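Input record, target 12 of the design panel.
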């Protein structure tokens, strides 16, 4: 029906609920989750990208960081990320660091962990005698930039906030789009 109306589907977005993941895996991907699938219609084939809602991806970063405490990250954009260590972010509120199960669904807590002020504090201490904070700051910066780019709610957000990561993507050469491509890789 969408195709007959003259529209082209390029992606499907769902939240991270287990039934939605199972639908992607079992019904669309033949048992192994893929980032996109072939979509044949009217003797043509193109890719449909299987997406997860950005809010849920952001909260998943937060919850995995809470649960694992320490990550091993590959280099990103030719910069070493290292091993961010969640336990080093000691200045955050107790609820951010130790939420009960229901609080882990609160995007505001994820926002607090990945907030610019948390990153600035880690950068400050990393350059003032605590270089072990550097990998954590780098990791938080990457996730924060992802969140800023995908969480744009108005076309003028980037201008109003003086933040280029909150600029609306309007061209295939846009640096924010390139970041998302790099991030997805």
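The sequence produced for target 12 reads:
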């Amino acid at each position: 029906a969408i195709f007959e109306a003259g529209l082209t589907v390029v992606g499907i977005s769902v939240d991270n609920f287990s039934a939605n993941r199972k639908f992607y895996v079992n019904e669309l991907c033949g048992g192994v989750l893929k980032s996109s699938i072939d979509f044949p219609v009217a003797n043509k084939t193109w890719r449909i990208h299987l997406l997860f809602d950005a809010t849920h991806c952001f909260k998943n970063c937060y919850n995995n960081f809470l649960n694992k405490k320490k990550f091993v990250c590959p280099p990103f954009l030719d910069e070493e990320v290292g091993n961010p260590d969640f336990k080093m972010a000691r200045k955050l509120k107790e609820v951010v660091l130790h939420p009960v199960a229901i609080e882990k669904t609160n995007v505001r807590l994820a926002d607090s962990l990945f907030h610019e002020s948390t990153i600035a504090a880690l950068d400050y201490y990393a350059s003032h005698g605590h270089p072990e904070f550097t990998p954590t700051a780098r990791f938080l910066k990457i996730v924060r930039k992802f969140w800023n780019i995908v969480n744009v709610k108005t076309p003028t957000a980037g201008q109003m906030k003086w933040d280029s990561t909150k600029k609306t993507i309007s061209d295939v050469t846009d640096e924010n789009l390139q970041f998302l491509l790099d991030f997805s890789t």
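Residues 134-150 form the longest helix (17 residues).
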